[in-house]
Design goal:
33% helix; 4-stranded antiparallel beta sheet; two-stranded antiparallel ribbon; alpha+beta; Alpha-Beta Plaits; globular
Length: 134
Amino acid sequence: MKIWLPIYENGNHLLKLYLPKIKIVMQKQFVAVNYITCTPEYRERFEELFGSRAKAIDLMPGFIDMHVLKPSKEDQDYLIVSYWESEEAFKGWTKSEAFIEGHKRGFADLAKAKAEGKEAPMSSNFQTYKIIAN
């Protein structure tokens, strides 16, 4: 069952809050941060890939939420911050068919660059964290 709470101000509808999501976010225990380094010419493509993502991660057991952060300076990394109920849930995602499906366009870009003898247009470095305070 989905419970939506409409929020109004002076009679104007501002937004709807999904109540179960609010409760779940308070229970998050584990965070994975993927630092993505892109070549300058690949940045637009990277943003396109995330803008049109399949959202396969959203259906994974233990997944809570995700933020894709664009750097304020061109020489900084993009950050993909995902929130999970547990480390096991995150590891399950990285070993799933959904993970492969969700990343296949980016993997294809890497394979194409390698086949052409070019530098990889992006690289990825995962770091994981446990939440100790909200």
